[in-house]
Design goal:
Distance between the termini: 49 Å
CATH architecture of the largest domain: Roll
Number of strands: 9
Shape: flat
CATH topology of the largest domain: Ubiquitin-like (UB roll)
Structural class: alpha/beta
Number of domains: 3
Radius of gyration: 23 Å
Helix content: 25-40%
Number of helices: 10
Strand content: 25-35%
Largest sheet: 3 strands, mixed
Order of helices and strands: HHHEHHEEEHHEEEHHEEH
């Protein structure tokens, strides 16, 4: 979400109604933000459905960009200013989370990263339209490290609560109350981006356990600025339900492969279950505790609605 507020992006297509234009932009940005937050939650899961998370953390690509460019950055001090309503205890938690991060070697990158963390921290306390700007100051600089202080000016805006969550375009999950129960936030609670992202992750896992490998969800937010409420309508694209057509284990002799196949939680002919597949990955990882080199593959047959699973242990067998 931009720190610039309503501007040309809002007014270009809605000259007659700036508020409607601004809310339209906020709805688009809300979907982007929540999807990104969900991707970040998924980034640490097993390689079962590995993908580029796009999270604003020190990923492999980020560390590659920063390597050998200068001393490691550490955050020694974090301060916030502005007409702040967020309790000091919550501010301290946000500051502590910023200090704990690894920022590599770029002061500008550290500042940009920290600005996003500050924005996320305020949004997790209902200040969804918060605007944040940050500045840095070098305290000490040595060949092995640089200590900097970060200061942030925060325009909180209004604090929003959750009005309701509704769903559309779903067929398999007929129990709307069960879907709603997957979100760890009640109607009327202070809005939290993190809790919405966690709910979307819970929905993804639930569908994944029922074979819907290609399931996606996109939230659309509607803002009631008068009552300071946010309502969500979540579009569920279930996709096709997949069955397990085959399971193969490479790198083991026949007796060992057959024994491992018996112990795998996921079985051929079953509806694909992402949780059982993750348990299966944990099972074969436990066989080679010192290896850390196994691999896995899922091959989808979209037309047939089947998935072929492969566990490749050949590097571990060398």
């Amino acid at each position: 979400m931009s720190a610039n507020g309503p501007g040309s992006e809002c007014n270009a297509g809605h000259v007659g109604n700036p508020r409607r234009a601004y809310n339209a932009v906020m709805r688009r940005r809300f979907a982007q933000i929540v999807i990104l937050a969900t991707a970040c939650l998924l980034a640490g899961r097993p390689q079962v459905e590995a993908q580029d998370s796009g999270c604003p953390t020190r990923s492999a690509s980020a560390s590659d960009d920063r390597q050998s460019s200068g001393p490691e950055i550490s955050i020694a001090n974090v301060t916030f200013s502005g007409s702040l309503q967020l309790p000091v205890s919550d501010q301290d938690q946000i500051a502590a989370s910023i200090k704990r991060q690894d920022y590599g070697e770029s002061p500008d990158g550290a500042t940009d990263d920290a600005v996003e963390r500050v924005r996320a921290g305020w949004q997790d306390h209902g200040y969804f339209k918060v605007k944040v700007s940050g500045d840095k100051r070098t305290l000490t600089s040595r060949p092995d490290g640089r200590r900097i202080a970060l200061s942030f000016y925060v325009e909180e805006g209004s604090q929003y609560s959750l009005d309701r969550i509704s769903f559309k375009s779903f067929q398999y999950m007929a129990d709307v109350s069960a879907l709603r129960g997957l979100f760890p936030i009640n109607d009327g609670d202070i809005f939290s981006r993190e809790k919405i992202a966690k709910g979307l992750e819970n929905v993804r896992k639930t569908y994944g356990e029922m074979g819907y490998i290609n399931f996606t969800s996109v939230p659309e937010a509607n803002f009631d600025d008068g009552d300071k409420l946010i309502s969500l309508e979540i579009d569920l694209d279930e996709g096709k339900q997949f069955y397990v057509s085959s399971i193969d284990v490479l790198g083991l002799d026949d007796p060992a492969r057959e024994e491992l196949m018996k112990e795998l939680p996921i079985k051929r002919g079953q509806i694909y279950n992402s949780r059982l597949w993750e348990l299966s990955l944990q099972k074969y990882n436990s066989v080679f505790l010192d290896c850390q080199c196994g691999d896995s593959e899922r091959r989808l047959d979209e037309k047939a609605g089947t998935v072929a699973l492969t566990l490749d242990l050949r590097p571990c067998s060398d």
